[in-house]
Recover the amino acids of this structure.
């Protein structure tokens, strides 16, 4: 007990000698001030955010009513009359000096035009120009961060600003993926198939999703121009070649048949796979011999695609080749070959049984299944 008491005495003595009570009080006050300051700024931020949210909601309601009236205008006189209405004048006056209000109305106009077509959508795009809002989008396109540029491109293309196509086109090969994807989609949206000229200079890859987006935008245009497809099939950018093969597949471009055949020897496996898919849509009988020659140089997954294509077009000339694949090392290839034989060769079951042991797996299961498929 005496040792403990002595230890406590020494401890309190040292603390009292080292820490000045005045300094301790000062430090405590500093920490209290810091915490109070943090709470104050959090409160200020929440108040400001709530205020902006309420104002945003109020502006959206006001703009919604305005846009509804704008959409139903049918003549130029009605549009001019709309501009002179007190509510419209109030809005345009506000837009001249309030950047926040301009951002909100641009968003509302963009959302509206996506859900409209014809004259109503044209009216919305007309007001976007009349209010000078395109200048905001152009400024952000030139000066903004990458996500701001992408948003600006969406605005200009969604609100049909074709006259700025050159400014958008410059970003189709932008180093930022999101910016260049938006720009590529935008030029197709604004100009249709003519916008595909960016493929001539594309050095960055087109992702699978980007290719699907471009095909969707192209499907909305009727002015189909395919002059560059054969050139793109020989592009050093393999993703451009892959996209060109998609165009061949979707639009049945038979004139590109020789180029598609060349793509069967492409260094990129995805290109070779896409070439097989395209070949199915522009098939000619001479393709069979070429596919058979390429078969041994391919991996199993590409070999299966070749067999699936031959399942529709194989003749008796390919019978020996198909029967040889029944003893392939990969079981999936065996199954694909057996299915092709069953769908294209006369007396298929007898031919298969001559090559394999029908009492062993997988043939005990596969042969009855194939027979049922053919019967259906």
């Amino acid at each position: 007990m005496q040792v403990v008491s002595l230890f406590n005495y020494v401890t309190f003595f040292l603390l009292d000698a080292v820490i000045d009570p005045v300094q301790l009080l000062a430090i405590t006050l500093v920490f209290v001030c810091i915490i109070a300051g943090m709470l104050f700024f959090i409160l200020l931020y929440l108040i400001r955010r709530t205020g902006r949210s309420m104002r945003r909601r109020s502006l959206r309601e006001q703009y919604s009513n305005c846009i509804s009236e704008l959409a139903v205008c049918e003549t130029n006189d009605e549009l001019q009359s709309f501009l002179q209405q007190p509510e419209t004048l109030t809005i345009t006056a506000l837009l001249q000096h309030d950047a926040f209000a301009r951002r909100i109305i641009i968003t509302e106009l963009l959302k509206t035009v996506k859900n409209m077509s014809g004259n109503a959508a044209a009216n919305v795009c007309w007001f976007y120009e009349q209010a000078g809002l395109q200048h905001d989008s152009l400024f952000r396109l030139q000066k903004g961060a990458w996500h701001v540029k992408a948003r600006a491109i969406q605005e200009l293309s969604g609100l049909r600003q074709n006259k700025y196509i050159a400014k958008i086109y410059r970003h189709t090969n932008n180093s930022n993926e999101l910016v260049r994807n938006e720009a590529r989609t935008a030029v197709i949206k604004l100009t249709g198939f003519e916008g595909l000229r960016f493929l001539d200079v594309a050095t960055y890859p087109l992702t699978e999703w980007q290719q699907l987006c471009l095909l969707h935008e192209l499907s909305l245009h009727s002015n189909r121009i395919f002059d560059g497809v054969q050139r793109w099939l020989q592009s050093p950018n393999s993703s451009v070649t892959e996209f060109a093969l998609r165009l061949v597949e979707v639009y049945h471009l038979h004139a590109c048949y020789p180029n598609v055949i060349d793509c069967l020897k492409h260094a990129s496996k995805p290109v070779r796979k896409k070439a097989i898919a395209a070949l199915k849509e522009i098939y000619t009988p001479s393709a069979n011999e070429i596919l058979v020659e390429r078969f041994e140089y391919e991996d199993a997954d590409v070999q299966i695609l070749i067999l699936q294509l031959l399942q529709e077009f194989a003749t008796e000339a390919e019978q020996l080749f198909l029967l040889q694949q029944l003893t392939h090392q990969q079981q999936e290839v065996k199954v694909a070959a057996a299915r092709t034989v069953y769908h294209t060769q006369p007396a298929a079951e007898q031919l298969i049984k001559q090559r394999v042991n029908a009492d062993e797996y997988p043939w005990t299961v596969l042969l009855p299944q194939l027979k049922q498929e053919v019967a259906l």
Summary: The CA atoms of residues 266 and 272 lie 6 Å apart.
